[in-house]
Write a structure and sequence with these properties.
- α2 packs antiparallel against α3 and α3 crosses α4.
- The protein has four helices and six strands; from the N terminus they run αβααβββββα.
- Strands 1-2-3-4-5-6 form a six-stranded antiparallel β-sheet, covered by helices on one side.
- About 35% of the residues lie in helices and about 20% in strands.
């Protein structure tokens, strides 16, 4: 019995130490979960220059939105405001950029540049060395004040 327990503990430790799998486009495969820890695990697993973008996005969101709530769902970080009832923003790694999703993006001024098949969604693709924090902070603030998307 003790041998089986030791084997299980060793497997659990090995799994915990294992680096997350990178899916197509280099997006980290992170187990879904609520709170800052899974979001930080996702950011830590982002490849190359995208990790810095993830850190900067997360820091900008935390600075801009008091009491922001975080989660990882569908291998992407999500950000919301408790009083708004859902999520206002998410991001995801692709091969050449990080895509920021504004769930109520058609209500933002000026409109984020990326169109979507979804009626209210707008996107911002951030390429290496291409992060306008001033405009992004303005969109984050606006988005956080809109009703959240329930997913």
């Amino acid at each position: 019995m003790a041998g089986k327990t030791s084997e299980k503990s060793a497997k659990a430790a090995k799994t915990a130490d294992a680096k997350p799998v990178l899916l197509s486009g280099g997006n980290p495969q992170i187990a879904k979960g609520d709170g800052d820890a899974p979001v930080q695990a996702y950011i830590a697993a982002m490849p190359g220059w995208k990790r810095d973008i993830g850190r900067r996005l997360d820091a900008l969101i935390v600075r801009t939105v008091t009491g922001v709530r975080k989660a990882v769902k569908w291998n992407s970080p999500f950000y919301g405001v408790e009083d708004q009832g859902g999520w206002f923003l998410s991001f995801h790694c692709f091969t050449k950029y990080v895509k920021v999703t504004f769930f109520r993006g058609t209500s933002l001024h000026p409109l984020p540049p990326g169109e979507s098949e979804h009626r209210e969604v707008r996107y911002l693709d951030i390429h290496e060395g291409d992060l306008d924090e001033v405009q992004l902070a303005a969109w984050i603030k606006q988005a956080s004040q809109l009703p959240g998307e329930r997913l």
